[in-house]
Write the C-alpha cells for this entry.
Amino acid sequence: MSFYCKQTMNVLGPLKYAFRISPQIFRSLSTTLKRKDQPTDNSLTIKSQEGGIRTICLNDPKKRNALSLAMLQSLYEDLKNDEDNLRVIIIKATGPVFSSGHDLKELTAEKGSEFHEKVFSTCTEVMNLIQDLPVPVIAQVNGLATAAGCQLVAACDLAVASQSSKFATPGVNVGLFCTTPGVALSRSVCSKVALEMLLTGNPISATEALLHGLISKVVPDDQVETETLKLANRICETSKEVVALGKKAFYTQILKDTKNAYRYAESVMVSNLTLKDGNEGIKAFIEKRKPSWKN
C-alpha cells in the first residue's frame, strides 16, 4: 500500500468511530483507496475550466475534505468568478470522502464564538452563492458526504453519486446537532426523512438518497465522472440566458404558495418570450432546424 493510502487509512479510522460508520461502509470506503487518479496539487481546491464546464475539486483528503474556514473561502472564490463562456460548475473531491463537513478542530471552545460565527456565516454564503449563480451547479459524489458535506450536496442544483456513496448528518453523535445542514437537507427531502437523518446520524445509501430526492442520479462507481460530464455537456447545448432565467425562477417560485407561484411563473414565461434565445428556439422548432443560441 502506498504512503498516501496508509495515511488515508489512518484518517478513516477515527472517522469510523466518530460517525459510527458500519464495517460494511468502512470497507467500501477503503476500497476506493486503490484509485490512482488523485491530484497532487497542494491547494485546498483545484479549479479548471474547459468547454464552458468549470470543475472545482475539494483537495484536502488527509482531512477528509473538511469544510474548514480556509476550504470554504477557497470554494467561494472558485465559485464566484463568472466568465462569459461559463455554463456549468461541477464540484467533486479527491479521496474516498467527498466531505466530512466542518473541521471540528475549528469548533472547539478555545476558538471562541466570534470565530465560530465566521465559519458558519461563510458556509452559508457558499450555499447561498450556489443557488444565486446563473449557471447550474452539479455535485459529483464518489464517497462519503456527511454533515456540512451533505449540506453541500443538498445545496447543489443537481447531484450525481456513485452506488457506493453514503450520506449522513451525524452531528448529534458528537454533541453538535446539524442545524445548518438541516436547512438544505429539509429542502431536498421530506421532513420525516430529514429528521431521521438529523436525530440518529445514521447514513443513507445512494439509492435511498435518490429515492428521497437528495440526489438526482445514481451510477456505477467507475462511471460517476463520465455521467456527470454527460449531464453537464447536455446543459451546455441549451441557451445560457434561458437556463439562468429558469434557475432563478425555480428557486423564487418554490417559496411561494401555489396561486402566487403560478402568477409569478406566468410573468417569467412572458419575459422568456422577449429574450432573443426565446424567440430563436421557437422559430427553430417551427422551421424544423437546430436553434442557434446567442451564447
Remarks:
- Residues 1-12, 25-40 have pLDDT under 50 and may be disordered.
